Amino acid sequence: MSLRTSLRRVFVLPALLVLTACSTFRPAPVSGIILPAQLSAATGEAANWPDPAWWRGFGSAELDALMEQAVGANFDIRAAIARVRQADAQVRIVGQALLPSGNLTGNVTHSQTPVSTATAVNLSAAGARRNFTHRTLYATGLQASYELDFWGRNRAALVAAQQNLQANRFDVGAITLTTEASVANTYFQVLASRELLTIQQENLASAERILGVLQQRANAGTSTGLDIAQQQTLVEQQRAAVPPLRQSIQQNTYSLGTLTGQLPEAVAPPRLSLGDVRVPPVQPGLPAEVLQRRPDIWQAEATLAAVQASVEQARLAMFPSITLSAQGGFQNLALENLLRPGSVLFSLAGGLTQPIFQLGQLRAQYRLTQAQAEELLENYRAAIVAALVDVENAIVALRETTEQERLQSAATRSAERAYAISEAQLRAGTIDLLALLITQQTLFNARNNLAQVRLARLQAAVGLFRALGGGWT
Hints:
alpha+beta, 4-stranded antiparallel β-sheet, 11 helices, elongated, 62% helix, Outer membrane efflux proteins (OEP)
């Protein structure tokens, strides 16, 4: 039997056995949660899912540029992509166990052996060399071994690695979506702080204008020092509210640097106002469709599947392992005769190993992976429930903040009319200071509340886009 025929039997036969005898285990995560027929907070209208570039619906070129920068340079996203490459390499490493391992060898051995036990005291150097035999042996060959994955343990390990790779890919989607939402929310926070700063400066100017009127009346003897002191207090309060707003603008602008992967000094301060931003329409579909569009749900499922495969791997580790090995090559004393048929040598071996003393450790490892799978199953269920709650809350938040903005806009317009009337009456001397202070404070609060409600509505829209998966596929 030739070396080629023997090696074919060694490596082809195990491959056929793997195809017929290895485990066909495939993880099948099932949450056991019965999904509702529809979202309770939804209106029942046809679904209008977010676009992958959902932020463009807000109509802000500044936000578009920030998103483009963040997707390409955010540190968390890039780290997640690196983890995908690591997981991909791990799949290749684990998959190697399903293939034979082997080494090519080449050796040259020079040996010297004595031919006689007689010794002489006065032997010459040449005579000493004649008492030994010198031999050079040339050899080359191939050593190979293969663990027959009869029970499917190595296959289960590969499935676990593949599912872990999938989980890391989904993690990139989840981190990207979270980053995009953070960029949008931070950007809108900057716009809101700038608008609040503008409002505060207008409030301060109004308070200072009334203080000037009171000082003029005091000079004319129609106003008291108490009136001036009260209005001066209001002026100082409005002035003291300015620095925190400037701080918020600067700090949130710097935070955009972290989110977009650049130094804070490189971030251009946003210039638009909240009034320049529109809220794009979005309408969720069925709960099952929502879950299909969220990368965090897919990540939780893939993570659970990976551990389920590890449970199978740990169970099969208690089964015996079968290893086949082969060694073949050429060996000759003459280099020119090394590759001749007469120089061929080979050996074949098979072995079976059954763990005995480490069975307790293997059983404990099996129970450990089982408990880990149970934990991740609960995490998977929690992720499903949290996703549905997230969508319901986001729908309610957007609906109610939209209504609140409409009502607050009406209240602000009324406060502006009341303040204009009271200021005119104060100048005419037909109203006392207390009535003016009340209308003045009402106007200041109404303006601030309107800006905050507009911010809340924009952030509620971002929250709904994120809850619906942000167009991720």
